[in-house]
Amino acid sequence: MFRSEYADVPPVELPIHEAVLGHAAGFGDQPALVDGTDGTTLTYDQLDRFHRRIAAGLAGIGVRKGDVLALHSPNTIAFPTAFYAATRAGAAVTTVHPLATAEEFAKQLRDSAARWIITVSPLLGTARRACELAGGVREILVCDSASGHRSLSELLACDGPDPRVGIDPAEDIAALPYSSGTTGVPKGVMLTHRQIATNLAQLKPAVHAGPGDRILAVLPFFHIYGLTALMNAPLRDGATVVVLPRFELETFLAAIQNHRITGLYVAPPIVLALAKHPAVSRYDLSSLKYVLSAAAPLDARLARACSQRLGLPPIGQAYGMTELSPGTHAVPLDRLHDAPAGTVGRLIAGTEMRIVSLDDPGKDLGAGEAGEILIRGPQVMKGYLGRPDATAAMIDPDGWLHTGDVGYADADGWLFVVDRVKELIKYKGFQVAPAELEALLLTHPGIADAAVIGAHDDDGNEIPHAFVVRHADADADGLTENDILLYVAERVAPYKRVRRITFIDTVPRAASGKILRRQLREHI
Predict the structure, then answer these.
(1) Which is nearest to 467 in space by CA: 501, 497, 492?
(2) Please, which residues have CB within 8 angstroms of residue 122's CB and are 6 or more apart in sequence?
(3) pLDDT per residue as tens digits for the range 442-499
(4) Burial, 144: exposed, middle or buried (Cβ in 10 Å; 0-12, 13-18, 19+)?
(5) Which residue numbers delimit the AMP-binding enzyme C-terminal domain (predicted)?
(6) Which of 106, 328, 374, 469 is deepest in the core (most CB within 10 A)?
(7) 339-362: pLDDT as tens digits
């Protein structure tokens, strides 16, 4: 068993809005959130007051403890305000990908039993259609303004009292992001107030941003990585978060230059752009002190090229998953020069790890031996919403969460992730479940069978690669790769699109019917 070198941290028995904003009054007029495109700023005092007023407004229209509110928005300075207002009103927040189709959104609404939606006016059409498909939603509100919909500004004018909601941090759900786990379709991950708040305390000794630090939030808040690293953690400790709605390279570089960003939390595709794109040389990025990458594996050579080009310490990495609130490992910011190339870090405070044999899961392995990574700690999720069997398959009776990732730790405790047991595809850090795409492909009348695996493109990104068996009839013979790519693209969010097709005679399966994905990889 591997244990953290840091001292344990006590469980944080606070609602997440108190854990993050409990010291906001002390930061006063310091900027908390800055719109990276137009400079609109919210101070800590404003963020504290505004989220309380909006919470009162939400309570006034009927939001109650136990409700689920769907937050459907790109990154804006209103997103954190809406999130903390909802949790203060007693709701659990299920975050929704802003590029989700109406059908995908409706599945999440139905599964989570969400009764409220907060969105932005450009996404209203999708939100309305999703409501029609799902049913059960009482009202759609908007962060900005739209005819016929209540806005956060209207709620801000509420003069009712702050809601006094009895929250049990150990049991009550704060966030309900959706994850595919190690396999299957997306499932609601129940993260309690205590799990998320304690994970922030666990991360702080290794990775910390406070007053005077300026963090660029370009990765999405709806994703657990962005929610923790770019929203909760910096706002907890008085840093300034500069917000961008999406990654566009020139806008991103201009924001670093103009807002004097000190720390970047990114995914590998952004590291690739920083290392190789010619536009980088046109901007002054000298304010940067460090870059940390997570959400997907980062090639060590690419990391080295990026740090050398920017004149920075080596690029650090971190590791975790939605089911772990999400952090378990990080390269400490004061150890960037010491960390071996390619490591995803060391165990954060209060976290234990086992590496077990792939052939004999009951056998623990030692330093330098690769096996499945198991994690135990206060950040392990409460479970999957409404799926006790899936929860039991993920977390064993002793509390160990089976990550589905294969890795090894060296003699000094640095973890290296080398492969995956799980079937999940990570496209630019976003989860893509093969089973979901396979089910969609089988709805095409010309497809008899299909399987999807992760493959790599020329830039090293993992992409969905579909193996397709045509129906044995004349019409199916004319089915082309472009036909299938378009069919899928019209029905899923952009990050879920199949990127490559291979036609085969039959999908290899075990006697149980399970797809033999390793055999398919031999065809690539």
Answers:
(1) 501
(2) none
(3) 899 999 889 999 999 988 889 999 999 998 775 666 899 999 999 999 999 999 999 9
(4) middle
(5) 436-514
(6) 328
(7) 999 999 999 999 999 999 988 999
Task: Give me the residue label for tokens 């960390």.
Answer: 339
Q: What is the rounded CA–CA span in Å between residue 175 and residue 94? A: 6
Strand partners of residue 94? 70
Instruction: Convert the pLDDT of each residue in 367-418 to its tens digit.
Output: 999 999 999 999 999 999 999 999 999 999 999 999 999 999 999 999 999 8
Residue with the two structure tokens 């499945």: 372
Residue 325 in contact with residue 381, Cβ under 8 Å? yes
Which two structure tokens, joined as six digits, stand for 451? Answer: 């399987």
CA distance 32 to 242: 8
Percent of the chain whose predicted confidence (pLDDT) is above 90: 84
Strands 68-72 and 92-96, by their bridges, are parallel
CB atoms within 10 A of CB 506: 9
Residue 355 three-state SS: strand
Interatomic CA distance for residues 398 and 395, integer angstroms: 8
Cα separation, 482 vs 505, whole angstroms = 19
User: Before 245, cis peptide (omega within 30)?
Assistant: no
Give the whole-angstrom CA distance, residue 150 versus residue 158: 12
One-letter identity of residue 81: T
| Domain covering 425-521: architecture | 2-Layer Sandwich (3.30)
Q: Are 230 and 239 in contact (CB under 8 A)?
A: no
E strand or H helix at 245, and its extent?
Answer: none
HEC letters along 172-216 = CEEECCEECCCCCCCEEEEEEHHHHHHHHHHHCCCCCCCCCCEEE
For residue 515, what are the β-bridge partners? 509
At 17-53, the pLDDT tens digits run 999 999 999 999 999 999 999 999 999 999 999 999 9
| Cα distance between residue 21 and residue 44, in whole Å | 8
Pairing outcome for strands 41-43 and 31-35: antiparallel
What are the residue boundaries of the structural domains of the chain, listed by start?
Answer: 2-405, 425-521
Say which CATH superfamily domain 2-405 falls into.
ANL, N-terminal domain (3.40.50.12780)
- The residue ranges of DSSP E strands in 58-155, in sequence order, are 68-72, 92-96, 116-119, 139-142
Query: How far is 202 from 346, CA to CA, in rounded Å?
Result: 12
- Give the integer Cα–Cα distance in Å for 141 and 298: 39
Count how many residues are written for the chain. Answer: 524
Buried b (16+ CB within 10 A) or exposed e, 302-330: bbebbbeebebbbbbbbbbbbbbbbbbbb
pTM, rounded to two decimals: 0.88
Nearest Cα to Cα of residue 330 among 205, 454, 472: 205
What distance in Å separates the CA atoms of residue 289 and residue 261, rounded to the nearest whole number? 9
Residue 35 · residue 243 · CB < 8 Å: yes
